[in-house]
Amino acid sequence: MGYIxxxxxxxxxxxxxxxxNPEMMNSADADKLEVIIGQKKTHLNFDKGTAPLAIGxxxxxxxxxxxxxxxxxxxxxxxxxxxxxxxxxxxxxGQTVRIQQRDGKTLNASIVDIKDESIVxxxxxxxxxxxxxxxxxxxxxxxxx
Length: 145
Prior knowledge:
The chain is an all-beta fold. It folds into 2 domains: 9-69 and 130-142, Chitinase A, domain 3, CATH 3.10.50; 74-122, Thrombin, subunit H, CATH 2.40.10. The protein is built from 1 helix and 8 strands; from the N terminus they run E-E-H-E-E-E-E-E-E. The chain has one helix at 47-50; strands at residues 9-15, 30-36, 58-63, 77-81, 96-100, 106-114, 118-122, 132-142. The strands form 2 sheets. The chain has a 4-stranded antiparallel beta sheet with strand order 2-1-8-3, with no helix packed on it. It has a 4-stranded antiparallel beta sheet with strand order 4-7-6-5, with no helix packed on it. A hairpin with a 3-residue loop joins strand 6 and strand 7 (118-122). It starts with 8 loop residues before the first strand and ends with a strand.
């Protein structure tokens, strides 16, 4: 058995809370993820972190924001007047709302602040700007080409 290489399919187990927590690795709370090395079908770059592993190995992989959900973008922090919201909406901090852009597309945004006359929304992905830490265990490998 050699090292994992391009086009090998790996199955790994990781805690679903996106933080290092070794106790969760053997629990029902650990999720399984199948990745084909080199195809970058997930937004996370596991290629670099898994190459030297063998089945049963455990490793902590740290994924910086640039390789995960990207940095937090200031242009996606919006402050809207309260009167722009329908009367049927009772805004609350942490609530997710859909907003329509000028081009007709919609965005999901989180309410991050409520002021006297306005509401501050964050349309960034909730994990944007965050470094992700995965404690993974390599469960299986299907060797490719």
